[in-house]
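Researcher: I'm comparing several assemblies side by side, and this is the next one on my list. It has 438 residues spread over two chains. Same procedure as the others: predict the full complex and return the structure.
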Amino acid sequence: MKKIILSFVAIFVMVNIYAQTATPSEYHYQKLSLFEVLPVTSSDIIFIGNSITDGCEWSELFSNINVKNRGISADRTYWILERLDQIINGKPRKLFVQAGTNDLGAGHSPQSVTDNIAKLIDRFQAESPETELYIQSIFPVNNGFEKFAKHHGSKDKEIIEANELLKQLCALKGVTFVDVYSKLVDENGKLNREYTNDGLHLMGTGYLVWKKLIEEYVN
Amino acid sequence: MKKIILSFVAIFVMVNIYAQTATPSEYHYQKLSLFEVLPVTSSDIIFIGNSITDGCEWSELFSNINVKNRGISADRTYWILERLDQIINGKPRKLFVQAGTNDLGAGHSPQSVTDNIAKLIDRFQAESPETELYIQSIFPVNNGFEKFAKHHGSKDKEIIEANELLKQLCALKGVTFVDVYSKLVDENGKLNREYTNDGLHLMGTGYLVWKKLIEEYVN
């Protein structure tokens, strides 16, 4: 029995070390190097986040050349913190953040996501105080699809908890919290099947819901 | 010995059936559904292709809101043919095509890539004859990186052959062939390490080389 418990403890520790030490993919550095040659200016409205942000065509969606995509598939809040210079140096007009799903999927806590978003807000408020910040909720997931069921898809409770913490954080810091979650969730607390084909990412219809909610802030 | 040969034949047949019957990923349908809600107009300059096209921010790169990204990661020429309606119905001003790498990586022949691009050209010339077509070469690859070495990275000869066929096709059809390959290849016939971190995809510097070559056609 002792052996079994020790084995479980060892696996738990290893999984956590893995989650902490996982490194970004080649794709991450491809996008970073592309962003390096695409300057951000003080007229710009920046969308930063993971695959859900990456997957959209933001300037097209808002018919605005100053709306720019800085999403990177698989990104996590602590990797976003490491690439803020590229954006903060341009002192953009607005910044929309949507991140945390991959942190939770990798076993990080709602509190750690919130702590990282707090650091992001602090940096902007100190170094680019004119930038309007919009912290968007983590989206619901749906474990009824095979692909992401095991990790991301099982995080329903953590997502609700993280969103509550993010909302409190935004109130404290005086920035806008945008609750996209409530617009995408079904009556069972899952990402509505109307808007997804894998339980994690959005279809075009989902992006339209998101657009409708935030267009008053973008324009 | 007969058994061994028969086994090899069986494996060969199975691999080919797999290549032919592989289906697009969830991501493919996410992008398709997004494109469905983002209309193409006769002012537009469309970039269509696979991950290499998908990975860029084209409207930003050319500072032009009418330059639109219709790349889908992992796309193949015969899947592109199936999604032409979304683009052809808008009768865009220009279409830039860059595709074929994933076909070759999946075991398809240079001739099959060329046959599919011929079908694409035929459809546009019949249904949207005002659209200026730019068929771009397949890019070199580099098997000196682990990730794609086995499939895509081993296709040096097929890529050269496909590009020669594409060039002949364009001359025959009266459309512009753009040789990006020669700008990205090193002295050993590989994708230059200056422009890639995985032997297949481009870093920002690579996109700048590509931009410089085609900007006379885009503007």
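Model: For your comparison table: Chain A has a mean pLDDT of 93.
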